[in-house]
Amino acid sequence: MGLLNLFKRARTFRHGVHPMDHKEQTAHLAIKRLPFAPKVYVPLAQHIGAPAVALVKPGQEVVRGEPIAEAGGFVSVPMHAPVTGIVRSIDHLVPTAAGPKTPAIVIETYEAATQEVLYGLDQDLDTLTRDELIKAVQASGMVGLGGAAFPSHVKLLPPEGKIIETLIINGCECEPYLTCDHRVMLEQTDRLIAGIRTIMRATGARQAIIGVEDNKLDAVKAIRDKLPAGEAISCDAVETKYPQGAEKMLIKSLLNREVPSGGLPVDIGVAVYNVGTMAQLGELIPRSRGLIERVVTVSGPGVAKPGNYLVPIGTPLRFLMEQVGSSSEANEVIVGGPMMGMTVASLDVPVTKGLSGVVVFEEEAEDQQERPVYPCIKCGACLDACPINLNPSMLGQLASVRQYDVMAADFHLNDCFECGCCSYVCPSNIPLTQYFRIAKAVNREARAAAA
Amino acid sequence: MTDITSIALSVGFMAVLGSVLASILVLANKRLFVYEDPRIDDVEDLLPRANCGACGSPGCRPFAEGLIDGTFEPAQCTVNSKETNELIADYLGVDLGAQEKRVARLACAGGSHVAFIRASYAGMNSCRAAALVSGGGKGCSWGCLGMGDCADVCDFAAISMNKYGLPVVSEDLCTACNDCVEVCPKDLFELHSINEQLFVACKNLEKGEEAENECEVICTACERCAVDSPEGLIEIRNNLAVIDYSKNDLASRVAIERCPTGAIVWFDKQGGYQVGKDAKKIIRKEMLPIG
Question: Which of B47, B66, B92 is the last residue of a domain?
């Protein structure tokens, strides 16, 4: 059997890159809880969609898990108090990784409080109808924990005329350094499976496939051991390759089907969820609680105590850095993974629901030094790397002459999900992905101005 | 068939074909003729052909058409000299029209000697690119990033970067074409008539100490300018002083004398600007340290 596996081709997609994964720093470290920060900052807009609307007032005492903001629409989620304490402000402006400052609820932690979650009632999931389940998911404040932070309940309700047949649970974690999903799959397997069963009922999906990269075979084994025979849930290993964890790539690898250009997975009857999201839902929904903390991988050469930490939402990165023994001086701090993550300009940025990791580099690191940009030599390396078969070389040349509308109209700019493979392989160090993000930002502004 | 007849036949055939096609062309020229005012070409020759859009039309030819049918006035071309515009007015026999000179003004005074930089940005040398990476590293997330996208885009070389990384608009050269307004990722440029002399050179929405921690020339929403401003001229909206230019006649230098940081300025008509006498003096000449 073992020998046969040598000849079996791992399930995968075409193109992509193989960056060093650096996961050995934290992959063996169990999830640990960190102390509570003296003040937490919960941004009202930390998900895609309308910002939440504050329910509390300055001076009000809140207990851990209590709702502090309600959803501002259907594509929006409520917020829950990550700590027991007193609300100090509801419109304090905090910096974000994306750039503009955004209003946040500031809660000062009561040092003497037990920080026990007292909020929420047990509910019997089997008695809930589909609509009630979707409402329960929204009430939990759940968003995609893989990084996109898209409200989870919205994906449960497919548009008119479309059905979800297959649920894909994304346990690839293809970003270097990050291991939080790996630990969740190993340590919270029961919750993960409970969450998947709930979501299968809510969507009516007939099967669920957990896709895990084959550098985490221990997680595959742990999940398979817990799955009873004949269950509609299965777990498959896919090739370790970046960006295997992009939902469209994972669908291609597992089902050998492609999401149409400009479309969503639901167009081919698929919904993709992150394993962390499922594990949290499996824990929160049966007790009707809200999302107040998440597992964050803190890793990289600039960290003394790397690991996977259970961090309350709203904890400032400065506090997190102090706890893991990283000097805040002269370091580059990336939230998310190093491929698609965002460098933060301020350590006052709080941990948000979509933040899966913090990677800290020392400034002296060799690959951090500024590299000169050379002209495109038309080698085509980016074409061989692009997982969705775009022409990054052509797009880059159009971007350098600011032909942003041509990029979108004729070269499928809007299908680019900014995985960064093209910039990673470019021998001329052309910042292609950055060009595309600029182009998309400019096009977005032009559309907003036209509307 | 002999050679002569075949040559004659083909020549004859071509002649008939030619005259038939020619008559179709003559007919088409008559039936489908579109009359175009010859003055459009003449006027366009007098226009700068920069197609900058400052007049409000998409380019110089549509502007020339607009001049002839009366939707535009010659003075609305801000790129042409007054003499050339008078020439156009004479040629068309219309009024020159009155066009207030408009210029672009930057709503930020946070140069590198007064505004704190939290993190150094290393990457593509463009404000637009820097703005996408955590806002660009400047403490004030509304402020000018100073990489000169506006100076690059200006067709008239009206914008230059000073040594503190702030763009300086030459009011003589500026044609109010709107290019810098569109390119700035922080939306800091505004077009103003040169008669609108009072200006808030700040867009920060923070208040008091939080704002002062970001920059020394900043609107802290202290409300001093608003309190004794003529009715409704200045009000504080979202922690920022906002001037209602429909009441521009009431504007005076009183407001700049009230501003403790110098974020409200008074543009004189020579292109410079002044802050109030009581505004905090900035004597630092070098860049602030990063961090």
Answer: B92
Q: How many CB atoms lie within 10 A of CB A269?
A: 16
pTM of the full structure: 0.85
Q: Which of B121, B124, B126, B133 is the mutation pick for testing A, counting most A CBs within 10 A? A: B133
Contact B128 A342 (CB under 8 A): no
Task: Give residue B228's Cα distance to chain centre.
Answer: 32
Fold of A12-27+121-287: Rossmann fold (3.40.50)
The C-alpha atoms of residue A163 and residue A75 are separated, in whole angstroms, by 19
CA distance A22 to A365: 14
Task: Tally Cβ neighbours within 10 Å of residue A8.
Answer: 7
Domain extent, residue B48, equals 38-92
> Each residue of A249-259: pLDDT tens digit?
999 999 999 99
Cis peptide before A95 (omega within 30 of 0): no
B154 in the same domain as B44: no
Q: Which residue of A has its CA nearest to B131?
A: A99
Three-class SS state of B225:
helix
Spell out the residues 6+ positions from residue B98 whose beta carbon is closer than 8 angstroms to its own.
Answer: B73, B75
Q: Quote the number of domains for chain B.
A: 2
Most distant CA pair in chain A: distance in Å? 66
Residue A201, Ramachandran bin (φ over 0: left; ψ between -120 and 50: alpha; else beta):
alpha
Span A115-158, pLDDT tens digits: 888 888 888 888 888 889 999 999 999 999 988 889 999 999 88
B245's CB contacts (< 8 A; 6+ apart) are B192, B196
Contacts of residue A345 in chain B, CB cutoff 8 Å?
Answer: 118-119, 121, 133-138
